[in-house]
Every structure is written in C-alpha cells, then in structure tokens.
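Field guide to reading this record: the first block holds the primary sequence, the second block holds the structure written as discrete tokens, and the final block holds curator observations. Each block starts with its own label. This record concerns DUF952 domain-containing protein, catalogued under organism Pseudozyma hubeiensis.

BLOCK 1 — SEQUENCE
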Amino acid sequence: MRDPTTSTVLYKILTPQEKLDMPDTNWAGTALDTKDGFIHLSSADQLPGTLERFFGSSSGCGDVLYIYTFTRSSVDRQRSTPIKLQFDPAAGTVFGHIYGVSDSRPVLQGIFFCFSCVLIHSPSDWLRIDDRTLTLR
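BLOCK 2 — STRUCTURE
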C-alpha cells in the first residue's frame, strides 16, 4: 500500500440519502463526520477496505453508493474559511481527515453499485481505483 499522506486525491463515500442531504456550499460532511468533528476520507488504496468495513452487506446502506473526490489542491486553495487536511492514525494506518467546512461539494467520481454487496469480501476483484480513475471490473 502506498503512503496515504502522498495521495493527491482523497475519496469520500456517501449513501444516496447522504448525497441528497449534501448542500451545494459549506459542506461539513455526513452526520458521522459532524459527530466526529472532521470529514472522513480514504486514499485510493484504502477505499476498498473502507467500502468493506463501513458499507458492506451488514451495514444496511443499500446497493448504491456515491464516491466523491477531494483533491489536495482544492483543499489547499480554499481561502474563505480555512480548512485543514490532516492524516490521523486509525486501523493500523493513517487516514485523511478534513477539519473545517468545505466551501464547495467534492466532485462526484463515480456511482458504485454493490448489488447487495455480495462481492464485498474481495473488493480488489471488482474495483480498481487509483488517483485518476475509478473502474468497476
């Protein structure tokens, strides 16, 4: 696994309801993000594990998820309300967290259909993701 702190793109997974609830500006994340005080993000290498751990068949999240991207440059460019990208330890590695409110929505990278998450046990078999593309196999 590549060092998450070198990622130029970080990913945010949303359920359909979280997508509907997302405002066009001044987004502070999901209810969980708000509770925890930061927006939870994953690197490309971490995304399959995040899908499995938090959005698997036992999660009740449904069969459709939305994968959004934050580029480091967009976080660095935000000036109206300062935000900070910080990598904090979790699950034996470090994950990106945005502290503060994002001026704009992250960019929709793809719609992920997990079809009852039957294949969630081996994410790398059906999902290829890197800093530029998200591909369902």
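BLOCK 3 — OBSERVATIONS
Residues 47-55 form the longest helix (9 residues).
The helical segments are 16-21, 31-36, 47-55, 72-77, 123-126.
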